[in-house]
Write a structure and sequence with these properties.
CATH topology of the largest domain: Rossmann fold
Strand order of the largest sheet: 2-1-3-4-5
Strand content: 25-35%
Shape: elongated
Structural class: alpha/beta
Largest sheet: 5 strands, parallel
Order of helices and strands: EHEHEHEHEHEEEEEHEEEEEH
Helix content: 25-40%
Number of domains: 2
Number of helices: 7
Distance between the termini: 30 Å
Radius of gyration: 21 Å
Number of strands: 15
CATH class of the largest domain: Alpha Beta
Amino acid sequence: MKESRTIKTAIIDDQQAYIETLKDHLSLIPEIEICGSASNYKQARKLLANEDLDLVFLDVEMPRKTGFELLKEARTAGYKFSVIFCTASDSYGIQAIRESAFDYIVKPVRFEELKEIMERFKKQRSTNLKAVSIPMFHGFAGMPEIIVLPTCSGIQFIDINRILMFRSAKANELGKSSWEVMLTDETIIRLTGEISAQRILNHYSKGRFIQLSQSCIVNLSFLNMVEYKTHQCILVPPFDKIELTVSRAHLSNLKDKFDAF
């Protein structure tokens, strides 16, 4: 996520009148910068390729391809932005949640509703900026917390702040599993087969990691939200496009651990 306070925004809708109404509403909200709009598939693809976008208002029922299909294409291409789906129907709410949309607006949009949504967006964006502005992205501050990992090629010394998650991976064609470490720069470190989930939690985590499933242990510093209904786990940007889910048993453990109702 960029450090600028300006929220670079795009609007995609097949109704030009709705685009103009939304632009008028957004012009009254500080920090919003409209980077463009699109009313068809070709225009939308070009607009979504803007790597500076922070937020996209995206119509669901678009001609040729739906808003969900457009979003999938953009994410596959590696473009990262938050999405607020807009539609005349209220039947797409569950799918919008599954697509990790920030919110969902049923047309016609009311200014007060839009203002409330944008206030929540700015608040979450500010929180995420603070969360990812930790030393790993700008050089480490203070003393690093070094742990020692037994890897397939030797002993590796690594700062615990650089570890995004531990995850289980197939080690060979026989299907034998082993654990690996994924760092914040997407480097993968394969651990020896003797390492178990329990050993990771007891010996390496230092209370900084939580187990989401039998195959994933994530750094708590990067976990933004765990959704009860979908069991989806959302990481802070720029890692929020990684798809993770928590198992039923481990969700129950998390609720007990953090006294969540």
